[in-house]
Design goal:
It is built from 8 helices and 13 strands. The protein is of the alpha/beta class. It is globular.
Length: 282
């Protein structure tokens, strides 16, 4: 199996939210990830309005302990820290916390209900690139998909849950996820893994009786220009294969429904929604 997937949305940091309850479960989750071709994960525990800097500091301390456990277990997986932010106010301030943004980059993963465009405007004004987690699970966006398009026009990036495409969050979420994918609005597909049973990592699975790989990418033969990325709807170098959760509804190749990939360079990990990157990220 090709091992080069990067999962940007996971709750594998033990004992800090509704995700992994222990180091043992986290290590088992990483083994599952490696088995599905994921060799890099960004851990994104919840940061909610009731949390403060002390909670964020606890995340960083727990992350350091987890890295030691991963090394001792001999697991060859690269981990980075971030957060899934649900603050309604002061978003730029929270994003500026050491783990308030993903992997020390400009991207901020948010879980906000519709109608909070001002929060995203403030994030962009502060130089961040906001990502809305699992928009397909917001009922208002499912009922009024034109709101999703309006958010995209404001340069909001969208991350669809792999489990939604597998039908694990109900038919409404699945249909909305497929619609977002069909229309080329998907910037990222993430696992949003929480545990080993109820919400396991599932980037590869089966749906509607047909096997499919939700995330599969091929290396481009040439570098992509830095300004081509966020709104490119088709990219020949990146093919999405076998996405057929409902026969005839989702095409076998859905444009450039991008996956979050890493660029390793002098400054570490730079996330970009283009599937593979061998040039600088601006």
């Amino acid at each position: 199996m090709m091992v080069d997937f990067v999962d940007i949305h996971s709750h594998a940091l033990p004992g800090v939210d509704d995700g992994s309850p222990s180091f043992e479960i986290s290590l088992a989750m990483f083994e599952v990830a490696l088995g599905q071709g994921v060799d890099t994960m960004v851990l994104t525990p919840h940061l909610r309005p009731i949390d403060g800097p002390d909670q964020e500091e606890e995340h960083r301390q727990r992350f350091a302990e987890l890295q030691v456990a991963v090394r001792d277990a001999g697991l060859e997986i690269e981990l980075h820290l971030g957060a899934e932010i649900a603050f309604r106010f002061n978003m730029p301030e929270v994003a500026a916390w050491p783990s308030g943004h993903l992997a020390e980059g400009p991207y901020v993963l948010t879980d906000l209900p519709p109608g909070l465009e001002q929060a995203y405007f403030e994030l962009r004004s502060a130089g961040y690139k906001p990502i809305l987690a699992h928009p397909e699970r917001h009922r208002a966006l499912s009922v009024h998909p034109e709101q999703i398009d309006r958010l995209r026009q404001q340069d909001l990036l969208l991350q669809v849950n792999a489990g939604s495409l597998l039908g694990r969050f109900g038919r409404r979420a699945q249909a909305t996820a497929e619609m977002i994918l069909e229309r080329g609005w998907t910037d990222f597909i993430g696992s949003d893994v929480h545990d080993l049973e109820k919400r396991p990592l599932a980037l590869i699975g089966r749906g509607a009786g047909a096997g499919f790989a939700i995330v599969r990418r091929a290396r481009s033969r040439k570098a992509l220009p830095p300004q081509s990325g966020l709104r490119a709807q088709r990219r020949r170098g990146f093919a999405r294969r076998g996405i057929s959760a409902t026969p005839g509804q989702v095409s076998a190749r859905v444009g450039a429904a991008k996956v979050f990939a890493s660029q390793k360079g002098e400054s570490g990990l730079f996330p970009t929604p283009i599937g593979a990157w061998n040039g600088p990220l601006k």
